[in-house]
Design goal:
The chain is mainly beta. It has two helices and eleven strands, in the order βββββαβββαβββ.
Length: 149
């Protein structure tokens, strides 16, 4: 049975052509990742970066103010998925995503503030791979499906 756990608050892509990062209303996905994202077809295990709004709240609690999307996420959600184990499946929109690995901290995050890498060591995000082609739209509900079937 699917369990409702949250909602997609924002969606971001890095445009394949212009390399600019932008928010958008929806994304199309297939087994190679987010179609039209600059990382499309580069690493199926890291196709979608999911970050919780809790990460931004943590930064804010340390007086670090920033804009959503700066952590590199594709999906900003109102559910904290950081304790989900690899193999866990989420249903979002018309697609299923499988948690594949925890996101490591990139040193470029220190350009936001020197404290960011340490603060977000375990709270930056998680990577997921696309299980089936589909679409994710702003406001879509997120369902915890369970381990990979």
């Amino acid at each position: 049975m699917d369990i409702l756990v949250g909602t997609v608050l924002k969606i971001f892509i890095s445009n394949k052509t212009t390399k600019q990062r932008a928010s958008c209303e929806k994304i199309l996905l297939d087994s190679n990742g987010i179609i039209s994202d600059k990382y499309y077809q580069s690493d199926k295990q890291r196709s979608v970066l999911i970050t919780s709004i809790d990460s931004y709240a943590l930064l804010e609690s340390h007086q670090i103010r920033t804009t959503h999307g700066i952590l590199g996420e594709n999906l900003l959600i109102d559910y904290n998925p950081y304790l989900l184990k690899p193999g866990t499946v989420l249903k979002i929109g018309t697609t299923h995503l499988e948690i594949s690995q925890y996101c490591t901290i990139c040193q470029h995050l220190s350009s936001i503030d020197k404290k960011v890498p340490k603060l977000l060591e375990k709270d930056r995000g998680i990577f997921a791979k696309v299980i089936n082609d589909g679409e994710i739209t702003l406001g879509d509900k997120i369902f915890l499906v369970g381990p990979k079937p």
